[in-house]
Every structure is written in C-alpha cells, then in structure tokens.
Write a structure and sequence with these properties.
Helices cover 25% and strands 35% of the residues. Strand 8 and strand 9 form a beta hairpin. Strands 1-7-8-9-10-2-3-4-5 form a nine-stranded antiparallel β-sheet, with helices on one face. It is of the alpha+beta class. The protein folds into two domains: 30 residues; 153 residues, no CATH class. The chain starts with a helix and ends with a strand.
C-alpha cells in the first residue's frame, strides 16, 4: 500500500514537472520569431495620413524619399495635456540630404554623410501610407505585404511590443498599434 502510494506520488510529481516543462516550451515557442505568410491582406483604399503642404513641397523638390522612418509617440504639453507626435525622417542618399518633420513641419535639413550606394531603386512604400493608430492588418494591407517575420519583444523591454520585418520594411507595434516604421533604401545589384 505504501509502495503504491509512493509510486502514485512519484508519478504525480513527474506529471507536474512534465506539465511545467511543456508549458515553458510553449511559452518559449510563442516568444520565438515566426515567419508568417499572409493569407488575405485585405483591401486598402486610402492613405491614413495627409501630407502637409511643407511635405508636398519637398516631394515636388526632391521626389519621394529613398528611405524613411516614422515614430509615433505622445509628448506632454506645458499645460499638462498630451500632444500626439509624428516624427519623420526622409532620406535622399542620392542628393545627400536628410529631412526631419515633426507633425508635418520641416524642422531640419541635414547632410547625409554616407555616400550614395550605386543605384537606388524607388521604394514601394510612401510615408502617407502609415498612420499612428494602424493595426497590423491595416499595415499589411496598406504596404501590400505578403510575408513577414514577427518577433515578440521581451516584456522587460516593452510590454506587449512586437517588431515585424518585411521586404525593405521594419515596424514596431505596442498594444496592437503602430509606433514605428522604417522603409529601407533599395539598392540595385
């Protein structure tokens, strides 16, 4: 009887350890990078952001950027309110110029110190395709993404944050909303 009870306890302990081991493996699997094939990217009809007149002026002068980065965040105002901020950098490697816009207003024009690569291709992405409250499915539809890599961020780094990589595009989401997007320059080979 004691032998049977001891074997039962040992079996129960082994079962608990196996369950904990399997659960830890499942958590590790869910936190590992995953390649995702888009089955249905939906239909996208309009751009979620309206370029400012200053941005349109720069498009007329230089064309669409060869690379760009957009950050979405909030800034506290002196009166205690919160102001949404859209910080954009547009890079023109061929012209050696980088433009910085804050909420559509040109705030800096800086030289790019890196030499232009051989031949830069036009990006398939445009800054006005991306807005601050976009969800993953909206980013996928807007950018026409067919395949992407999903990398969950460590909870200590950013709770509920995920980074995604697609061809010539990387973007980050927090709490399911777009917070960062970067379109990388394409070089002809």
């Amino acid at each position: 009887m004691i032998f049977g009870a001891g074997c039962g306890c040992l079996f129960l302990i082994l079962l608990i350890f196996l369950g904990v081991y399997l659960y830890a493996g499942w958590v590790e699997y869910k936190e590992a990078p995953q390649i995702i094939e888009v089955q249905d990217r939906g239909f996208h009809t309009n751009d979620p952001y309206q370029l400012s007149s200053g941005q349109e002026e720069q498009l007329y002068r230089l064309g669409y950027p060869e690379a760009f980065t957009i950050l979405f965040y909030e800034e506290e105002t002196p009166t205690g309110g919160v102001l949404p901020v859209r910080l954009e950098t547009w890079d023109y490697y061929s012209a050696g110029i980088g433009l910085t816009f804050i909420n559509g207003e040109l705030t800096a024009e800086d030289p790019i110190e890196h030499p232009a690569p051989a031949e830069i291709q036009d990006l398939p992405y445009y800054p006005e395709q991306f807005g601050t409250t976009m969800r993953l499915d909206e980013v996928i539809a807007s950018a026409g993404i067919d395949t992407y890599v999903e990398i969950p961020l460590e909870k200590e780094f950013l709770k509920n944050g995920v980074v995604y990589y697609a061809p010539a595009l990387s973007f980050g989401m927090e709490e399911g909303e777009l917070r960062y997007i970067e379109a990388l320059a394409l070089v002809e080979e």
